[in-house]
Every structure is written in C-alpha cells, then in structure tokens.
Amino acid sequence: MPDLTLNGEPRSVPAGTTLRDLVPVADGVAVAVDGEVVPRGRLATHTLADGQRVEIVTAVQGG
Q1: Which pTM value belongs to this model?
Q2: Where are its TM segments located (predicted)?
Q3: Among 11, 44, 46, 59, which has the highest number of CB atoms less than 10 A from its own CB?
Q4: What is the spatial distance between Cα 2 and Cα 11, in angstroms, rounded to a whole number?
Q5: What is the helix, strand, coil percentage profile of the chain, to 5?
C-alpha cells in the first residue's frame, strides 16, 4: 500500500491507485506529482508510487 502526500497531508492508497482514482472529473482541476504537472489525458494511466507528493488544485474565479 503506497504512502504518499496528498495536498500536504499523509495518505495511504491501495496498490495500483491511479490519479483518476483521486481526481474528480471536473473542469478547472490540475494535478502535479512531485512538482510536475500531469496532463489530463494521462490521469487514468499514472499509477501512484510510495513517497510521491501529489497536489490537486482547482481554479476559482473571482473579481
């Protein structure tokens, strides 16, 4: 079971977990793993590994 950091918080996920398993399907969402943005088209194939740092951010509009 990989242990990783998700948005600054420690988390354990089942082996074989992909970014698609963690990321809601929504516009305005970006994902970075270890500081590198992962293209939306690769979320379903990017399997998470022990020790990785995952950041999920959502764009917010304002004025």
Answers
A1: 0.86
A2: none
A3: 46
A4: 8
A5: 10, 35, 50
The tokens for 38 are: 């992962």
**What is the CB neighbour count within 10 angstroms for residue 19?**
19
For the chain, how far is it from start to end, CA to CA, in angstroms? 43
Q: Where are the alpha helices (DSSP H) in 1-63?
A: 19-22
Q: Which two tokens stand for residue 35?
A: 């500081």
The residue with tokens 């270890």 is: 34
Contact 36, 14 (CB under 8 A): no
Tell me the chain's radius of gyration from C-alpha atoms.
12
